Amino acid sequence: MFTYQVILAIVLSYLLGSIPTSVWVGKWFFNLDIRTQGSGNAGATNTIRVFGIKAGLPVLLFDVFKAWLAVHLGTWFANPEYSANQEVIYRIILGGLAVLGHVYPVFAGFRGGKGVATLVGVIIALYPASFFVILICFSTLLASTRIVSVSSIISAFVFPFVAVFMFDERRMPLIILAIAVAVFVPYTHRENIKRLLNGTEKRFDFGKNRIKKQAGG
């Protein structure tokens, strides 16, 4: 069951997820650790909030891409003995390891982000049709509330309903994963939920770069 190709894919998936895009961008271009700025989260939202859209958008896109790529390692490092169901589980595990790597990155002292962008990469790879509906949901919520945490939590909650009832997903591993996403995202946003209840959660500023690029950074 565990061929050397499968073991290699497992290791690579975690290492891909562990690439701390926001941390490296902050240190290389601004001489700052993003984890000491803003919300302290090593993710795309905090990068945009602190360093601006020009720094944050590449972080977002790469964090999505690295998880998408991890899932596709299941195709490129396939085990021909796997059944169709086992193949789906294998790809889910690889995506999950990328998310784990993002949250606990070996290249950044195991202090990473919340994993939402990497989850998006997994969803694009495994539920491409559902993704576009969730993207519309997230974008609409963000435009109306300007609160990323609210948009992320509600979109995650809606996701399994979209996958199962709108797109008739019947593969049990993918149904379970969709439900797990709906639980995982609120769990990683526990502090945000506390701030929402206290009325102190910050609204997202689509605007500007607050910290300028450091010379020689």
Brief overview:
By secondary structure, the protein is mostly helical. It has two domains: 1-112, no CATH class; 127-204, no CATH class.
Annotate the secondary structure layout.
Layout: H1 4-17, H2 21-30, H3 44-51, H4 53-76, H5 84-103, H6 116-126, H7 128-145, H8 148-166, H9 172-188, H10 190-198
Total beta strand runs: 0
Proportion of residues in extended strands: under 5%
Radius of gyration: 18 Å
Distance between the termini: 47 Å
The largest β sheet comes out as: none
**Poorly predicted runs:** none
- Strand pairing plus helix content: what structural class? mainly alpha
Order of helices and strands: HHHHHHHHHH
Mean pLDDT: 91
Q: How many distinct helices?
A: 10
Account of the protein in words:
The chain has 217 residues and is mainly alpha-helical. The protein has two domains: 1-112, no CATH class; 127-204, no CATH class. The chain has helices at residues 4-17, 21-30, 44-51, 53-76, 84-103, 116-126, 128-145, 148-166, 172-188, 190-198. It is globular and about 50 Å long. The model has no long low-confidence stretch (mean pLDDT 91).
Descriptive key words:
217 residues; mainly alpha; 10 helices
